[in-house]
Write a structure and sequence with these properties.
alpha+beta; Glutaredoxin; 8-stranded mixed sheet; 20% strand; elongated
Length: 205
């Protein structure tokens, strides 16, 4: 009895395997050449907002900063360091304490990179700083600043607006450029993560 002819094999499995192989290539091409599809990942994965354009630290006379004992302080003397900034009144309400706490802990958590960082608190009035604040945040450089002059540097577009100085936190890079701003009530873990990434990816400071 003659054998039955073999049935032709389906090419569907082969087509399926081929599609799996070329799918990543097609996806990459679409992401690159058709950005309107929303397939391209964002180039930024930082939490803080990049300051655009970056602003160099002004000359000492422009900021007119003074230490708590009245000596002039030049912010540019911290050139070569990553500088973590906050600003608030001398009484340092709860929101101020939170910022100092976030920056102190973010600084302290950087392990062997800790010496690459400095912290500065701009005090925007002549009120005395509570003793407990002086003790708890020893190591933070505390300087008095004229809020109008400070706003011209830190928040020129929002100068005079409520919270323009007292809500955010900032970072100055080792080349003395203001380069990042954190939002009000910033997430401490995300602030720490951003700083860690900056230190890991930078060969300066």
């Amino acid at each position: 009895m003659p054998s039955k002819p073999a049935k032709p094999r389906s090419i569907l499995p082969l087509v399926f395997v081929l599609l799996i192989c070329i799918a990543p290539v097609i996806f990459a091409l679409l992401a690159y050449y058709v950005p309107s599809l929303g397939l391209r990942p964002s180039g930024e994965n930082n939490y803080g907002a990049l300051v655009q354009p970056q602003r160099p630290v002004p000359e000492a006379a422009a900021l007119d900063l003074h230490t708590l004992d009245g000596k002039p302080f030049d912010l540019r003397s911290l050139h070569g360091k990553w500088v973590l900034l906050s600003a608030d009144t001398g009484a340092c309400p709860e929101s101020c304490v939170k910022k100092l706490f976030v920056l102190r802990n973010a600084h302290a958590s950087q392990g062997k990179e800790v010496n690459r960082l400095k912290r500065v608190w701009f005090i925007t009035d002549d009120k005395p700083v509570p003793e407990q604040i002086l003790t708890a945040y020893k190591g933070t450089i505390m300087v008095r600043a004229d809020p109008a002059k400070l706003s011209a540097y830190l928040a020129p577009k929002a100068a005079g607006q409520a919270g323009a100085l007292t809500d955010p936190m900032w970072i100055i890079d080792p080349l003395s450029n203001l380069m990042m701003q954190f939002p009000a009530n910033a997430d401490p873990l995300k602030v720490r993560s951003d700083i860690k990434k900056l230190l890991a990816n930078s060969r300066i400071g």
